[in-house]
Amino acid sequence: MAEIVKHLEPDLEELRESYRSGKTKEASWRKSQLKGLLTLLKEQEKDIFKALEQDLGKHYAESYRDEVGTLTKSVNLALSSLKDWMSSRKAKLPIAAFPSTAEVFPEPLGLVLIISSWNFPFGLSLEPVIGAIAAGNSVVLKPSELAPASSSLLAKTIPTYLDKKAVKVIEGGAAIGEHLLRCKWDKIFFTGNARVGRIVLTAAANYLTPVTLELGGKCPAIFDSFSSSWDKEMVIKRVLGGKFGACAGQACIAIDYILVQEGFAPTLLELLRSMTKKMFGENPRETKSMARIINKQHFLRLKNLLDDPSVQSSIVHGGGMDEDNLFIEPTILMNPPLKASIMTDEIFGPLLPIITVRYTYLKEP
Questions:
Q1: How far, in Å, CA of 213 to CA of 216, rounded?
Q2: Which residues form the Aldehyde dehydrogenase domain (predicted)?
Q3: What is the separation of C-alpha 134 from the centre of its chain, rounded to a whole number of angstroms?
Q4: Is-catalytic flag, 247?
Q5: How many other C-beta atoms can be found within 10 angstroms of the C-beta atom of residue 267?
Q6: Which pLDDT score, from 0 to 100, does residue 3 have?
Q7: Shortest CA distance to 330 belongs to which of 213, 255, 264, 243?
């Protein structure tokens, strides 16, 4: 760490100088860097898949769908939209300003710090990098240390494909992150939990640095009933894919729990059970159709959610755990206590509670 900190300020000064030189503002530079990212994604695809399998046990199909494929689309969108994004736009003025005219010119902010998360270690690192480069900024990327293979691959490949005087990767744990936050930035983009988000926002306040926080939460899916069998299959697939298929539920936009009309709950449960087996197999760990839990700490956190006796009794499907391989099979619960931790904390794993509700339709007068 001492060696990284020693070289940090000279590296940041080099990045600031690259921005001050004006080269990052040029359309030609932005295009060349975006094309470099496309080449990286194409030429390093197999190594990306290998790193994701090593860090999270992701199947290559999931890795392409959620990371390489979406990143490729984002880069192509940025390339095709760059001219429009860089163009000025006429601004409306009040009548009091007549006969003046005004235009809005998009300008980069400067030196951007991106702190990414471990659950989509390439997607959540490179998506903000794409935006920062397209906007004409210089960039420091700090990948998550909890996905070491992915972090290492980013640190090794980005200097090869991008301008290393304007885009740098700095690896390290919490101590390096804290040191980076003491520095002055023109923009900070953070993906992670609310606790660290507060630390980032507090540090940014010292310099009034603008911050984007991409945090988690408890996102429910709300069910009523279905009008056709086609609707049933489509919606159930979307729920299961959004919960268990996206990094085994370790995603901030994953469905956290389901709210369903009490009378429809038995039908929903049966549909979820049958479609879970169809989508992920009888043994998802052996078929490698689901990612694993990132590390033992997070595995034990999820295990503790289920170890509550009142929660344990609400399990209606799954519940199997393999601590040696950090794997938890798709687990469905029916009406766990609302005051239990599983219903008050963000789950961030392959546990899906169903909460039944009663309601009546109100007739229009």
A1: 10
A2: 23-358
A3: 20
A4: no
A5: 14
A6: 60
A7: 243
Question: Could you tell me the two tokens for 112?
Answer: 């951007």
Angle between helices 123-134 and 69-86 in degrees, nearest 10: 10
Strands (DSSP E) along the chain, which ranges? 89-90, 103-104, 111-115, 138-142, 167-169, 187-191, 211-214, 220-223, 257-261, 315-317, 321-322, 327-328, 331-334, 351-357
Q: What percent of the chain lies above the pLDDT cut of 90?
A: 85
Is residue 100 over pLDDT 60? yes
Exactly one of 214, 219, 233, 346 is catalytic; name it.
214
- pLDDT value of residue 149: 98
Does the pLDDT value for residue 365 go beyond 70? no
Give the residue from 193, 237, 235, 222 showing the smallest Cα distance to 347. Answer: 193
Report the Cα 90 to chain-centroid distance in Å: 35
Q: Quote the CA–CA distance of 53 and 123 in Å, as a whole number.
A: 15
Out of 53, 127, 247, 252, the active site residue is 252
Instruction: Evaluate whether 176 touches 4 at the Cβ level (below 8 Å).
Output: yes
Structure tokens at 207: 């310099």
Please confirm, yes or no, whether 9 is among the known catalytic residues: no
pLDDT value for 232: 81
Q: What token pair was written down for 244?
A: 């268990």
Output the CA torsion 158→163→164→166 (10° steps). Answer: -120
* CB < 8 Å & 24+ apart, contacts of 75-80: 75/34, 75/37, 75/38, 75/41, 75/130, 76/38, 78/34, 78/130, 78/131, 78/133, 78/134, 79/31, 79/34, 79/35, 79/38
Q: Of 166, 164, 119, 168, give the one whose Cα is nearest residue 146.
A: 119
Residue 292 structure tokens: 């694993």
Per residue in 243-256, pLDDT (tens digit) is: 999 999 999 989 99
Mean pLDDT, rounded, for 100-124: 96
